[in-house]
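Researcher: Please translate sequence to structure tokens.
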Amino acid sequence: VQLQASGGGLVQPGGSLRLSCTVSGTTFSLSFMGWYRQAPGKEREMVASVISSGRSNYADSVKGRFTISRDNAKNTLFLDMNNLKAADTAVYFCRGIYGGAVIWGQGTLVTVSS
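Model: Translation complete:
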């Protein structure tokens, strides 16, 4: 099972981006999926997560601006990011749990700058 993240890029403050994370190697939904980010010189942190029941959780810093969602039919996880700030600049990673194993996708860089 592999995760493939995409959708990063350069955006101005106040702008929006949508990140996608596609799951391959299985047709079953992962019990847990989440987005994490790592800014230069900082530790990786959880941004948002969602479990198979649909219950989601967000870091305080992104509540009200980011929305996590999943399309189980397409086995894809999304992160809609609005009102982006310079502090959101980081490499974003998707993470999933499948059969008890933790799986990380490669990162996608989000740069918020004017």
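Researcher: Any highlights?
Model: The first strand starts at residue 2 and ends at 6.
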